[in-house]
Amino acid sequence: MVNSLSICITVKNRSIACADSQPLILLPRTLEAVRKVFDTKQAYAEVVISDWESADLPLAQWVPGVFTNLRVNLVTVHENRFSRGRGRNIAAANAQYDNFLFLDAETLVSGEVEQHLWEALERGDIFFPVCWSETRPDGSCGRWREKGKGVTAMTRSQFDTLGGWDELYTWGGEDVSLYNRAEKHFNIHRPKIKSLVHIWHPTDIRWLNNGAAK
Questions:
Q1: If we measure between CA atoms, which residue out of 203, 199, 208, 92 comes closest to residue 152?
Q2: What is the homologous superfamily of the domain 5-212 according to CATH?
Q3: What pTM, to 2 d.p., does this model score?
Q4: pLDDT of 27-55, one tens digit each?
């Protein structure tokens, strides 16, 4: 289907987190941004979320109500150890369409992202944008996330050619591995997009493991 899109996200306890005793809203903000860009009357898109039994705010209780026209597919992963790469592969395996957009659970998209995405896919390129990463909780400061390659769009055929995501059980690495393989087979479209925002959250390993790596 022309311009059909499966938006693939994997998550474990990233809806309402806590940082410095303050609530930190992540996945709801991500999905609200997705709604604003992709949830149109002519939408040929879906959101596929592989959920590692999140307990902070059970997804089935609220995610379907976010969208009007986008199809929602919640896939529960009954495994103890979280792997972002494995979760993304599971989401892709359950996707209905043949164009994929992979997002982290704390990423805000925009109309500019959508425009670049389709331009890249129509050329046969893979979309690996550089996002703007907040460096303070209030979002007042940030930096270009040059090393991050976790947001990407490609066709199912390209994804299969690359062998999907490495299923690592450490923080990071699977995005760089996929990017390095993609460079060998396809042209890469990698613009800097300031309206593509990685929401601030703590990066110390204890905080990360508290939610997702149990």
A1: 92
A2: Spore Coat Polysaccharide Biosynthesis Protein SpsA; Chain A (3.90.550.10)
A3: 0.93
A4: 999 999 999 999 987 778 999 999 999 99
